[in-house]
Each structure stands twice: as structure tokens, then as C-alpha cells.
Amino acid sequence: MKKTISILCLYAIIFATQTAFAQQGRDTERRVSGENYEPIGFTQYLNLVGQNNLEFIAKKFNVKIADANLISQKVFPDPELTVSGFDNDDRRLHLGRGLGFDLNYNLELGGKRSSRIRLAKSETEMEAILLEGSFRELRADAAILFFECLKQKGLLEVKQESYNAMSRLYEYDSLRYKSGEINETDMRQTKLEAAAFLNEVYRQETEFKSSMAELCELAGQTPDTLLMPAESSSAPSLQAMYNLQKLQSTALENRTDLAVAMKQKEISINQLKLTKAERAIDLGLNIGYDINTVSTNEIAPVPAFNAVRAGISVPLRFSNLNHGAVKASQYSVQQSEIEYEAIELQIQKEVSQAFFNYEGVQKRLSQFNLTILDDAEKVYDAVLFKYRSGETNLLEVLVAQRTYNDIRESYVETLFDYASSMVEMNRKCGIWEMKF
Asked: Nearest-CA neighbor of 315 among 10, 91, 109?
């Protein structure tokens, strides 16, 4: 009687465990399918990032600030009005009182205003170039993050399928244990392996959710509803043909940092012109009008009269003997020229490195296209068939299972590396030819 009860309890435990594994598998499959998430396509996500990324929106104000600064540089110097009153000791000598008006204006010579406008215009154009460069960088970062999330999704699918396979194997071993074909230890070993695979699923699910949260943050969205790539993680590889020399020429034409270096050189030249213009003298123009009241002094009576005054003030610019500011501006121009040449060399190096990386990843990807995935699956199926036929042990199944998983995971990661290498190629060349 006790033996019968023990057997019934054991069957109940096995049934409950199988039910729990099956339910966990269904829950994980539902999470993988994206039932609780908002699917989003590649192009749609890039558009969302461009419209809603908060850092990029904040950088747009730099252009507006530069435009406002350009407008402020167009103003002319303000005139200055002075009103003064004077008393010719009228209380004691009765020589009368008066009121004076003076209008002063500083006339800038040497083209100072036009130089300031020219410099401010160059700085405004610089901000526009920097904004365009920021958008290109943001677009490339968003693309890589999208592919990263797609990779995490693919790895989760691999681990989920591995768990499902091991769970089915556990169910099969449970039946074999009931029929007495295997002992309890072998059955429990299969159960433990299934639990280990399930833990890997949970761990990968966390990585996948974290990457989706990063997608939301970059797109300016709250993580209340996670964005999930709608494309399949096993999508066909992106195909593109590149030529290194052509890529380098394209990069020298389109790279934002080279355009920034060119504009910086222009700004340095305009700053030098402004420095020289500021060394020119400014004329001070003055016009005044005095009103004098009548003098009541009996000894020297003076009638009331008005006086008009005009004058010019010329500063003595002894400070122009110091040429430090001009020399500093000249050195800045020379520095910008050398920096431009250095950036040209850096661009050629970066394009070459991106091209070599792309070629290397492409070769790695071609290995998977030579039936390596099919071969790994066939080996795993063969070992699994032998195990079910009683020709081999569980250890060989686990070795074949993990080898098959490693190859599939390596394929998913290589797909990500390939897509990322194409994004970097576009980034380094200042182009965008990503179609996915």
C-alpha cells in the first residue's frame, strides 16, 4: 500500500513538473512573440528617433541661438544723449543760468560691423553643419541599437527553442522512466538540464527587455510600452558592394567633421579680419546746444543767448603698437589649416578600417551560408535520434545541443556584426544607404 502511494505521488510530481515546464514555455513564447510590446519597423524607428530624441531637439536650439546672435550683430552703435544744467553763480553775481544738450555718436571705421556680421554668419553656418552631423550620428546610433535589440531577440529565440527541445526530451524521459526503460537519476538529470535552459531563457529575456528600454529612451519614449523590432532576427543578410577608393573619395566630399574643419578655417580667417578691423580708430561725433538765460548783473549785463556746438574726437590708439591679438589670430588660421589636413588623413584611415571590418564580417557570414547551420542541425537530430533509440547517453545529446546553440548564436551575432559594419561604413563615409 505504501509503495502504491509512493508511486502515485511520484507520478503526481512528474505531471506537475511537466505542466509547470509547459506553462513556462508557453509564457516565454508569448513574450518572445511580442504580444505585450509595440512592434516597430526599422525605417519607422529611425523616423521616430529623428522626431522625438530629446538631445537632438535641444541641439536644434543652437542654430536658433546662432541666428539670433547674427541678428544682434547687425545693429549700429546707439547714440548717446546728455542733458546738463549750469549755474553761473547767479545767486550771488546774477550771471544767469543755462541748460545744455549734447548728442554723441561713435562712428566705427575699418569695417568693424561688416566683419562682425561675417563672423556671426560663419558661426551660424557652423551650427547648422554640426546639427546635421549630430543627426547623422544619431541615425547611425539608432540603427546599431535597433540591430542590437534584434540580436537580443534572436538569441532569446534560440534559447527558447533549446529549452522547448529539452522540455520535450524531459517529457519523453519521464515516460521512459514510467515504463522502466531508464532509472530515476537519468530522468532527474534531464529535468535539471531543462531547468538550466529555462534559466538561460530568463537571463536572455532580461537582456532583450533592457535593449528595448534603450530603444524607447533614444526615441524619446517612456518605457511603459516597450518598442520591439518587427523584423525577424533571422532576416537575410544585407547585400552591398563597396570599393575602398570610391568610399574614401565619397567620405572626403560628405563627412561632417571635414565640413566643420573647413568652416572652422573660415571662422578663423573672419576672426583675423575682425581683429584687424578693430585696430582701426573710431571717430566720436558730438553736437551740442546750450540755452543761457539773461544776466541781471548791473555791472556786466549779458542778454540771453543760445549756442550750438559740434566736435570730433579722435582716439590716440597707442595700443595698436601691440600686435599680439593679430598674431594670435594668424596662428589660429595656420592651426585650422593643419587640422583640416589631419582630419583628411583621419577620415581615410577610418574609412579603410570600416571597409576592412566589413570585408572580414562578410567572410565570416559567408561561412554560415555554406550549409553550416543545416549540418549542425542534422548532427543534433541524429544524436537525439540515437538517444531515443537507446544507442547513446544524455551527455552526447547535451554536447550536440550546445554545439548547435553556439553555432546558431554565433550566426545571430554575425548578422548583427554585418549590419553594424554596414552602418559604420555609412557613418564613416557620410552617406546613408541602409535599406532593411
From this structure: 109
For residue 22, is pLDDT > 90?
A: no
365 confidence band (pLDDT: 50, 70, 90): confident
Count other C-beta atoms under 10 Å from residue 9's C-beta: 10
Which of 124, 332, 341, 151 minimizes the C-alpha distance to 233? 151
Superfamily of domain 2-75+108-281+317-429: Outer membrane efflux proteins (OEP) (1.20.1600.10)
The residues spanned by each domain of the chain are 2-75+108-281+317-429
Q: For 148-183, give one letter per residue: b (16+ CB within 10 A) or e.
A: bbbbbbbbbbbbbbbbbbbbebbbebbebbeeeebe
Beta strands 38-40 and 227-229: pairing type?
parallel
**Which pLDDT tens digit goes with each residue over 50-108?**
999 999 999 999 999 999 999 988 888 889 999 887 777 667 666 677 888 899 988 88
